[in-house]
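Researcher: Here's my situation. A collaborator sent me these components and asked whether they could plausibly form a single complex. I don't have experimental data yet, so a predicted model of the whole assembly would be a useful starting point for our discussion.
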Amino acid sequence: MADTALYASADRVFRRKRIVAFGLPAVILLYLGYIFFAFDLPGLAGRARWDNARTLLADTWSYKTHVTRDNRGGDVAVAIEGERKGSYPQGTAPDWVLPQDDGAVRVALSGGQEVLLLPGNGFRWEVPGFGLIEARLEGRKIVSNLPEEGLPDWISASPSRLQVTADGARVALTRSKTELFRYFPGWELFFFTLDSPYHGHGFGEILLGAQIDPARGNIAGAWQDFWHNPMWRHADVAWALFETLLMAFLGTMGAALVALPLAFLSARNFAPLMALRFGVRRAFDFLRGVDGLIWTIVLSRAFGPGPLTGALAILLTDTGSFGKLFSEALENVDGKQIEGVASTGARPIQRYRFGVIPQVVPVLVSQVLYFLESNTRSATIIGAITGGGIGLLLTQAMITQKDWEEVTYYIILVILMVMAMDSASGWLRRKLIKGL
Amino acid sequence: MTQTPDAPHDPRGHYLALMAQRRLYGGITLALFVLLMVSGFMLADERNAGGFWNGLPQVFDFPADVLADTLPKLAALPGHFVTYFPALVETINIAAVSTLLGAVAAIALSLLSTRGLARWPRLIPVFRRFMDILRAVPEIVVALVLIFVLGGGPVPAMLAIALHTAGALGKLFSEVNENADLKPVEGLSSVGASWLQSMWLGVVPQVSPNYFSYALLRFEINIRASAILGFVGAGGIGYELRNAMAWGKGRFDEAAAIFLLLFLTIVVFDQLSSHVRNAMISSKKGGH
Amino acid sequence: MLTVEHLTKRFGANTAVDRASFTVDRPMMIGIIGRSGAGKSTFLRMMNRLTDATEGRLLFEGRDVLQLKGAEKRGWQSDCAMIFQQFNLVPRMDVVSNVLHGTLARRGTLATMFNLYPREDIHRAIDILERLGIAAHAAKRAEALSGGQQQRVAIARALMQDPKVILADEPIASLDPMNAQLVMDSLRRIHDEDGRTVIANLHTLDTARRYCDRVIGMRDGRIVFDGTPAQLTTGVARDIYGAGADFSENATSTEIRDPVATAIIRAAEVAV
Amino acid sequence: MLTVEHLTKRFGANTAVDRASFTVDRPMMIGIIGRSGAGKSTFLRMMNRLTDATEGRLLFEGRDVLQLKGAEKRGWQSDCAMIFQQFNLVPRMDVVSNVLHGTLARRGTLATMFNLYPREDIHRAIDILERLGIAAHAAKRAEALSGGQQQRVAIARALMQDPKVILADEPIASLDPMNAQLVMDSLRRIHDEDGRTVIANLHTLDTARRYCDRVIGMRDGRIVFDGTPAQLTTGVARDIYGAGADFSENATSTEIRDPVATAIIRAAEVAV
Amino acid sequence: QEITEFRLGILGGENAQDRMTSNQCFADKIAEALGVEVKVFTPADYNGVMQGLLGGTIDAAWMGASSYAGTYIADPEAVEPVLVKQNLDGSIGYYSIGFARADSGVTSLEDLKGKKFGFGDPNSTSGYLIPSIEIAAAGYDMTPGAYFGDVVFTGGHEQTIVAVNNGDVDGGVTWADGQGNWEDGYNSGALRKAVDAGLVDMNELVQIWQSNIIPEGPFVIRKALPQDVKDAVTELTANLWEEDPDCAYGVAAGDAKDFIPVTHAEYESIVAARQSVSN
Ligand SMILES: Nc1ncnc2c1ncn2[C@@H]1O[C@H](COP(=O)(O)OP(=O)(O)OP(=O)(O)O)[C@@H](O)[C@H]1O
Ligand SMILES: Nc1ncnc2c1ncn2[C@@H]1O[C@H](COP(=O)(O)OP(=O)(O)OP(=O)(O)O)[C@@H](O)[C@H]1O
Ligand SMILES: [Mg+2]
Ligand SMILES: [Mg+2]
């Protein structure tokens, strides 16, 4: 009876479904396979530098203090992160660096270990589980008690340089200097640098305790020293953040203002001339198709580096995006409202004002606010090129690869900024759309 | 149509007061906006190396230089197209793979963070925050970090864009999910289907057209993003463009060729995706 | 007062209104009936100048309104208010603003762009709303109102224009019977009290019979009936609608016969 | 066979089902009636384990199904099919796939995700559809079907589960009278022919009387009536619905008394 | 002709904040001398400074020799070189250094045949221009795929060092003063900075090539500026080492002897070199 026919047709349907169900993933897998080789993923494992990752990770939450002994003059300098701004004034040192009477310097490490920087241009370090390491500069050569062969990978030795890395510290001996890095957790000098009188004082002490700097009140003084901290430069970072937001805001809003009237010219139902509409549409495509970053380069000839150039680049790109979105919104307007207004004898501009604008405003506002949030992120990148904002600080700090804690600081700030913009624009969107 | 309890006794005064209040708020908002725009513009103008009004007449200097350098060497352009085509393919591949991987992750994340669908309802805020963070980190940051670890090339860019895509699409997808009809899911649960089954059979078929349309839009964005990441050393066409552009006079013809290649690609994919999306929308409207 | 002469509208090969002619010599309430596609809407839209006529003349107080251009045309539009089946209000704006749109043609462009209307206009708008029984909703957004209330806002906008003629294109087709009755009562009252001419396209015979002084029947763009409601017999109606012998008026009736419902409407009218 | 003991469900302060207890000793068709909010849906959802109970036990063949977890719970769900008021099908999928969803709990996750159903399952699905008179629509998408057809697809899915119990939550409330009758007839036939227990929440007294062997009345979460249809007098019904003396059953009736309509249904049954 | 502000562009191997800090004293001095506000800009790359000078949005900058040449080629009337840094030994030059990883077995350009070679920024003199010419002249074709397996731009000196150290490229070029010891990364230069930052261990790197001496980049001033402004800034800068060595140290990004006058003639060869590698 009809059953067999029905069975057959159902079987056919399911065979087709199975082909689709397997075919699509198969195509994707094939593509991924191609990518696997095109992107040389097998070689990637070999190229990946996990020690770099470790350095990076370690550096994000720790800092190092350099103890440097000049092998020519014998001077010992202590500086946080080896930076001038983090140097301990001559003759002072943290309590774990102990000059000895014989001219040696004893550096205490965590876990009771210690390294002796010897006056004869050498050092001595008793590494637990390995033994004593002693090295000295003799003439132009470095001699040590280490064997020639079979060194562990945390020791790197050559006649001109010896480096030992162990347990939160690293010692390097070259002809010119002996250098010891000791690692500590935290972001040192985040609040105050060494030269600030407030360094080493707790919050409670500053807020409630006795006046620390006789010239200034505690809170004002502490704020000043914190805000103008030469190491972390909070004031400049804050300005950079603000500059990034400024670029995003000016670019987005400017684009919206420029795009709105142009969108009327390119909406099918409002365009006065079809040729004009076509032209404006292609202009939108062009503005959008050329990325903001390229606009930045083009504009930087005329306007030079700075936030305005970034804002204008965002403005140009977004005029294209908004133009397209707005004209789509305009093409979807409900003609009844316009007709209703028109039937009262309203002028064309009044028709737009009352028949069209109230309809499209919610769409416009929500799009603009969406873009404002995503442009905050774009502004970070554009700033890296045009020379402004947090993006420049971030990329430069990353490229010079010096202070990953600084990089971490910037990344956290960028994320917080974007998330704040996200919630702010979301809040504003709800608020405005309800009230409009 | 019964008497509302808060109906005003004096509709005229009531309305005028309301109007005055609305006008005041509207006026304040408008004034605030204008003030922000004007002062923001002035500040940016002041902090910029070149002023807006001085720079305006020079806007076309750079394009003019490019043209002046390119026009005499037009014959070399096709050669440049061929030279840089592999880089373009790499850029498109980066965008495609990252969109694919990001979209898959986004589907999982969005299902896990939609009320009514989530496997572990308590963890919804966790997944949401996670997506927020993925979204907030600029691709360039992830790419630079990964370049440091993995070395240059397409993989860091691909991962960076994929992570961002997962966050961005995840949010859009979960909005789509929120509007999905829960009845089929309940129906499937009632037959004893597992979570995966009810999502795959009950939710995904409903939302896949929307997913697809958002993913296409994202693909378009990602082509641009991968070109941009080339600017910071992640390979592809952006890298070539930056080098040619930075050199300036003497290699502007290369820059122009790369630019044209990139621009045409973006326009082609843009048109293609809006075409597909339109087709999809109209087929959805036009019955089954 | 109003003379329509050979008014014709063609859409390509299709003639929507075909040499329609009639004369109105005093303000009255006119109903136009006819089945869907008969050309009723097109006729009203030509009259309000929302659509241009192909041929013919439409004289109002001696002037051919079809020839007007620019400001004069807008002046005519403001003299000739239109009420639509779907209300055609701006849903996101409040009721009073919608009513004030009736003054757009008279007020300066700039002031209206910023929603700045003279205080006396606002008062008059609220008076009109009060007269139509919806002043309590004055500050609400139009979209927050029920269909019947929205249609009354549309009528208020029309009245705000202080028009000589009110055109209504199936004003009650989207309304339930109760609201339909409220709206038709309002239109009738406006005619009775203000003496304005009201021309309404109607879907249903009984409404036309009950509210109009004169009924015009259209079929395929032509006027096939023009007379008093009393002349509108079932036989005539069959001709207008091109229906067979099984035509029954009740099928299209919207009148509320239930005494309870009528009582509810009364109560509601008092309450709003 | 089925024993419900002090089954309770609280939503915050609100008790949706309040210590419901009853016993069923042989397969029968049971109707649950009660006004909106009485707890009927909540009861069925607890039984199918879509909602967890707050207190109480529900023994089926000696096992407390409320204690089951993970795979065992899904196993029980596949033994206890549910039919919903809104059908709860996957609208974009074809009818056969929807029916095959009834086997999900038995088949591997991966296989079902790739549409790998065994051939005999597919054939059985067609058989079931044929039995319910909708095999002709097998390849269509569920959303393309009328409400009554969709509900029969839902019943087919339930049958596909080969369940011991079928729960139906107001299966005919979204259907017009003609389709309602088709669906109720199908349910009754399943009970009669397969001997499965059917528990249906019903909105209307006459349906319960006509199709059920036993009727349970709920009010405010408690079971206030449990008896045969014959015992369900108008007085009892008034108690269940908490209605006054003006209560008339006809207000909620869905029965088709019109002989013409019945004829149409017959014709439709033959046609589909 | 009056100016209302003076805009200084700075470039270098430090991050943007540090550049700002080390040049702040310089900016203050110019402000004092000219009586107008001085703004400091730190574009992300050489091209940013070039565009600024060409577009007239930056008035003065320390440039690399190649980027100066690029600016000159684009518009000979844009800027003029006025001063150059004189090293402690009296020279005004530095070197481009080719290097590789010690454990890769590469010790000379010979060994890099078929391998990946890394330049820095295309506008860098020592990171691209000079090595690309001199290495090619030595018989190693620099077209990608010709002699070397591939030739890439890493983006800058720091990136080159990291890339070589990571093995992303097999050999690369960067700059150094050529004085002092290899194991310290020489006395100054990009290698030294990387060592100081703890990025690389010089034991793991070997030098494979060294260029001829390269002239230091000039301090350039925009030609269109009023003559008195140009003179004032030039004089002030020329006297910086004498008057404020600390500040000069920051401006020169290290120790130097003096800033001495220079003219365009000094860079003719670089201009020619740059033109020769353009299309
Ligand atoms: N803009 C237009 N373009 C083309 N044809 C049109 C247009 N507007 C109306 N028509 C045609 O003109 C004829 C008359 O339409 P009209 O809307 O005036 O009829 P109606 O009597 O108002 O009908 P209904 O009761 O459906 O509103 C119809 O055949 C219609 O298809
Ligand atoms: N998810 C829930 N959360 C809170 N309260 C609920 C929930 N589901 C049901 N309730 C409440 O439980 C009570 C019983 O609801 P239930 O849906 O079981 O009633 P019902 O008899 O099926 O009514 P109806 O005929 O309207 O479907 C109601 O008071 C309802 O508000
Ligand atoms: Mg009509
Ligand atoms: Mg229910």
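Model: Some features of this prediction you could bring to your collaborator: The pocket of magnesium ion (ligand 4) is lined by residues D 40-41, 169-170 (CB under 6 Å). The two ends of chain A are 65 Å apart (CA to CA).
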